[in-house]
C-alpha cells in the first residue's frame, strides 16, 4: 500500500488526482431523460397545488370519491395469508399455483392445452415485465425478426421492444375520422407484412383508443394470420374491463386458439385485481408439445435470472388465494363488474353533460369505446389548455382515463372540454 502511494505521489499531484473535473467526469454526457408520456402526467398532477385538480391521465381505477380501491377479495386474501407467510424465494419461473390459475383465465378453465402441458409460462413483473421478457426471448431466438405494433398503442410498447433491440414496424389500427377501427387498412397491413411476422395485438379494451375489433373481425384477422403464418403476441392488460366479464374479454384469444395458432400472451393483475404496485402477471407461450414447452420455459427463466432472479412472492400469493377459492373468485368477478360498470356509467354521464352544454361536436364515441380509456379526439394544444386553465391532467394524445371520472368531477370535466373544443 505504502509502495503504491509512493508511486502515485511521485507521478501525479494531489490536485490532478482529486480535481473536481476528474471526479465528476463519469456521467457528464448524460442528459435528462424525456418525461414519460403517461407517468409524467401523474408527476405534474401531484405537483399542482390547485384544489380543483383532476387526474384522468394514468389508467388506474378510482372509486366515485376519486380514491384508489383495494378490492374486498384482495383484503380477504390478505387476511388468509397473514401469519401464514414465508419470505422464501419463489422459483425462477414464479408461483406454480398462480400461473396455473392465470392460464385458465386466458386459455379457458378446461383447456386441453393446459392439460397437455403445451404452454410455457412464467410469472412476470406485471404486463410490462411479461412484454419485456417476451421481447428479449424474441430477440434471442428469432434475432432477425421485427415486431408490428398498432398505431396508436400504449406508449411503453415502443420502449419495451426498443430496449430489447427488436426493430419495430407499425400497422394501421385506428381511424381518426370515424373514431373507430380502420379495419380495411389493418387487414391490408397484415396481408402485406412478410410471411411469419410478429404482431403485437391488444386482446381487449385497446389502450389508448378503447376500440376493439368485433368478434367477426377477430375471426377474419385470425384467418389472415393463418394464411400468412404470422405470430400473434397478445397483451391482455385489461381482461374484465372491456365487458365486465373476464371470460368474454378473452374471446379474441379463444378465436386464435380455435384456429390452431401458436400464440404468446402477456397477462396482468394490475387493473382487474387492482394489484398495480404488486407487479404480478404472467408470460405464456403456446408450444407444439410438452417437450418444446419445457425448453421454452427454461429459456424464459434463464432470461429472468440475470435480470431479477425470481419474481416477488406477495402478489402471487394474493392472486392464487383468490382464484384458487371458488367463493373468493366469485367475489372477484363481481368486483371486476362493479369497476367496469362504474366506468360505463361515467362514459354516459360525460357524453350527456357535453351534449347538454350544446356542444356542436359529436361525442358518441365516448359511449361507443370500451375499457378504461376514451380517445377523445382532443388535440395536444387543447389538452395543454385543460391543464393550464382547468388543472385537468391527461396524456397529450387526448386519452381520458375514464377510471378517474366520477359524479363529483364529471360536470367540471365536461365544461372544460366543451370550452377548449369550442374556442380558440
Ligand atoms: C396506462 O396506460 O396508463 C397504464 O397502463 C399505466 C402505465 O404504466 O402506463
From TrEMBL:
<dbReference type="InterPro" id="IPR004838">
    <property type="entry name" value="NHTrfase_class1_PyrdxlP-BS"/>
</dbReference>
<comment type="subunit">
    <text>Homodimer.</text>
</comment>
<dbReference type="InterPro" id="IPR015424">
    <property type="entry name" value="PyrdxlP-dep_Trfase"/>
</dbReference>
<keyword id="KW-0663">Pyridoxal phosphate</keyword>
<dbReference type="GO" id="GO:0005739">
    <property type="term" value="C:mitochondrion"/>
</dbReference>
<dbReference type="InterPro" id="IPR004839">
    <property type="entry name" value="Aminotransferase_I/II_large"/>
</dbReference>
<dbReference type="GO" id="GO:0004069">
    <property type="term" value="F:L-aspartate:2-oxoglutarate aminotransferase activity"/>
</dbReference>
<dbReference type="Pfam" id="PF00155">
    <property type="entry name" value="Aminotran_1_2"/>
</dbReference>
<dbReference type="GO" id="GO:0006520">
    <property type="term" value="P:amino acid metabolic process"/>
</dbReference>
<dbReference type="InterPro" id="IPR000796">
    <property type="entry name" value="Asp_trans"/>
</dbReference>
<dbReference type="GO" id="GO:0030170">
    <property type="term" value="F:pyridoxal phosphate binding"/>
</dbReference>
<feature type="domain" description="Aminotransferase class I/classII large">
    <location>
        <begin position="52"/>
        <end position="417"/>
    </location>
</feature>
<dbReference type="InterPro" id="IPR015422">
    <property type="entry name" value="PyrdxlP-dep_Trfase_small"/>
</dbReference>
<keyword id="KW-0808">Transferase</keyword>
<comment type="similarity">
    <text>Belongs to the class-I pyridoxal-phosphate-dependent aminotransferase family.</text>
</comment>
<dbReference type="InterPro" id="IPR015421">
    <property type="entry name" value="PyrdxlP-dep_Trfase_major"/>
</dbReference>
<keyword id="KW-0032">Aminotransferase</keyword>
<protein>
    <recommendedName>
        <fullName>Aspartate aminotransferase</fullName>
        <ecNumber>2.6.1.1</ecNumber>
    </recommendedName>
</protein>
Amino acid at each position: 500500500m505504502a509502495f503504491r502511494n509512493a508511486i502515485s505521489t511521485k507521478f501525479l499531484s494531489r490536485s490532478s488526482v482529486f480535481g473536481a473535473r476528474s471526479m465528476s467526469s463519469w456521467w457528464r454526457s448524460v442528459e435528462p431523460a424525456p418525461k414519460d408520456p403517461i407517468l409524467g402526467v401523474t408527476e405534474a398532477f401531484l405537483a399542482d397545488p390547485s384544489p380543483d385538480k383532476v387526474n384522468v391521465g394514468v389508467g388506474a381505477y378510482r372509486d366515485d370519491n376519486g380514491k384508489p380501491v383495494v378490492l374486498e377479495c384482495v383484503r380477504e386474501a390478505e387476511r388468509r395469508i397473514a401469519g401464514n407467510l414465508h419470505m422464501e424465494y419463489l422459483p425462477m419461473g414464479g408461483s406454480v399455483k398462480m400461473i396455473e390459475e392465470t392460464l385458465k383465465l386466458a386459455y379457458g378453465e378446461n383447456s386441453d392445452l393446459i392439460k397437455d402441458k403445451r404452454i410455457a409460462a412464467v410469472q412476470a413483473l406485471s404486463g410490462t415485465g411479461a412484454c419485456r421478457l417476451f421481447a428479449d426471448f424474441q430477440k434471442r431466438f428469432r434475432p432477425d425478426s421485427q415486431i408490428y405494433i398498432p398505431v396508436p398503442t400504449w406508449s411503453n410498447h415502443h420502449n419495451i421492444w426498443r430496449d430489447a433491440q427488436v426493430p419495430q414496424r407499425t400497422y394501421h389500427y385506428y381511424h381518426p375520422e370515424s373514431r373507430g377501427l380502420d379495419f380495411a387498412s389493418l387487414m391490408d397491413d397484415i396481408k402485406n407484412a412478410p410471411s411469419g411476422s410478429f404482431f403485437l395485438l391488444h386482446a381487449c379494451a385497446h389502450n389508448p383508443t378503447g376500440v376493439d375489433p368485433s368478434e367477426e373481425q377477430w375471426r377474419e384477422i385470425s384467418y389472415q394470420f393463418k394464411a400468412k403464418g404470422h405470430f400473434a403476441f397478445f397483451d391482455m392488460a385489461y381482461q374484465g374491463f372491456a365487458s365486465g366479464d373476464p371470460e368474454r374479454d378473452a374471446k379474441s384469444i379463444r378465436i386464435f386458439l380455435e384456429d390452431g395458432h401458436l400464440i404468446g400472451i402477456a397477462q396482468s393483475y394490475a387493473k382487474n385485481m387492482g394489484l398495480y404496485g404488486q407487479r404480478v402477471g404472467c408470460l405464456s407461450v403456446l408450444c407444439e408439445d410438452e417437450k418444446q414447452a419445457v425448453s421454452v420455459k427454461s429459456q424464459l427463466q434463464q432470461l429472468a435470472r440475470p435480470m431479477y432472479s425470481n419474481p416477488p412472492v406477495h402478489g402471487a400469493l394474493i392472486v392464487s388465494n383468490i382464484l384458487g377459492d371458488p367463493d373468493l373468485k366469485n367475489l372477484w368477478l363481481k368486483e371486476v363488474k362493479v369497476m367496469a360498470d362504474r366506468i360505463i356509467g361515467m362514459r354516459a354521464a360525460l357524453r350527456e353533460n357535453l351534449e347538454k352544454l350544446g356542444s356542436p361536436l359529436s361525442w358518441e364515441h365516448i359511449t361507443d369505446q370500451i375499457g378504461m380509456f376514451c380517445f377523445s379526439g382532443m388535440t395536444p394544444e387543447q389538452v395543454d389548455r385543460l391543464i393550464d386553465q382547468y388543472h385537468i391532467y391527461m396524456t397529450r394524445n387526448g386519452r381520458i382515463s375514464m377510471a378517474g371520472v366520477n359524479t363529483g368531477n364529471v360536470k367540471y370535466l365536461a365544461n372544460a372540454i366543451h370550452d377548449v373544443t369550442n374556442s380558440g
